[in-house]
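Tutorial handout. Part one gives the primary structure; part two gives the three-dimensional structure as tokens.
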Amino acid sequence: MKIRKITFENHFLFGNLSLDFTNKNGDTVDTIIIAGENGVGKSLLLEVLYKFSTFSALEKNEKLYTEIELSQIEIGTLSKNGTRSGLFKNLEKNNILQIQIDFSISNIWNRMRVVNGSDTYAGEALAVDETRRIFMAIFSSAEINFSSNEIYNITALNIDNIVEESERSNSNLASEITQLFVDIQTIDATEFAEWGRENEGLPVNRDKIDIRINRFANAFKFIFPEKKYKTIKTKNNVKQVIFEENGREMGINELSSGEKQIVFRGSFLLKNKETTRGALVLIDEPEISMHPTWQLKILTFFKKLFTDNDGLQTSQLIVTTHSPFVIHNSNRENDKVVVLKKDDKGKIVVSNEPEFYGWTNEKIVQEAFNVNYHINSDKTIILLEGETDEKYFNKALEVFEKRGIGLEFRWIGKLNGKGNPEYTGVKALDNAKNHYTSNPSMLKNKTILLYDSDTNKFEEDLGNLFVRRMEKNEVNTLYKKGIENLLFLPSNFSQNDFYKERIKVDDYGAESLIRELDKTKLCSHICDVMDKDNQKVVLKKIEEEIEKLLKLIR
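Part two.
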């Protein structure tokens, strides 16, 4: 089964949202990438699709309209559906079904309508086990911490077990996969020993070695070719899955967090690969804990798991992501990015440009992550964390008469419709770095990402992209972080004039006074009220930062 379209009605978050997973020719796309900032419902969408695959209920006042495409094998299953086989006689001509579900109706089959062309049937037409398998989904949910329990025994786990219903990963995945490795390595060893006894004296047939475990070991090589699965060892009665890199052995729990994502989540999808052929595959944030170079490859890795020997993708993949590397890299092909966002009223909508294909359109990342990274300037651009950072640096250019030196300072964020800053700070600079390192051709001139002194960043030179951190001003004991740390303030400076106060009331009615620095007011005072001589004193450290940047670009 592949999902072509899905429309919500009265959904608590999505409202009446419609999503289209077809291309401009009306063909179903094999890989769908769902992108967007936090809070737009990316993971929730996967939950809804998983519930659809199990015919589980949503809220009672909601309706769901789903259009699916069936394979020839799935059409054959429906056509042979006993007394109901005649209901789907038109499927040979039109392999598209529409499933309409009204969750205000309690009975699982009565709430459902099945539409095939001009024919409409009650949901009961799908109420047989063989038919239910058509709607199967495999859901790899996001997990950060993987750690296997100790394995003491061999059990009866194997690969390619008959799967009758949808399956999702759980918090015990690491232990389940570790146990699976122990069991299938034992089966492989037993079968090879039997082959050896039956073929004594003949050359070793390497195709008979590690038949099952190689499915997993070969898949891992695509991401980390230097680190390989090696064997199972028993130490103190504990069975350990051993990997090896450059002659050094390590247990499966010693892998990095990114490596564990590959091993455990990849193995979950691989273990029943043959018996779940054609199932809908749902993957939530596959890039978690991964280095950018792996993020560039991770989508291809999962596609390869579901690609047959003829190069055909056997399952539709629907993937959510926060990563610009997943969305916008040269390895992407034959997929579709759907960008979800909130409009001015907080309503979840699809971006105005619903179809994104290929590598050339950097607007994908701009739409998905709400940061305008595209730089059109003959100057060196310095991107800054905060709104006031830009004003301080530009004022320093003015008072120290450094305008026209080829530097342009920009705050990376923006003000929303209510006048509040958004898409700002360290995260926005990090996103810019990710985008530019995966799209180096976009930088025609030098660009500098300048972090505040309190951030834990190291200097990096990445072609035309430079990562720098402001120097800590140890003299300023009043403001120990942010751009304010660079200020040289006189000893008689009246700091209380620049604090704002608010009352916080806890659940027991107790009041506490919260004092916060009004950064905008302080900046306005220094840049707009102070005379030039005092500005030169206060902004001296910022001038020193400008001089360092000038040396860098020269």
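Part three, for discussion. The radius of gyration is 29 Å. The longest helix spans residues 173-198.
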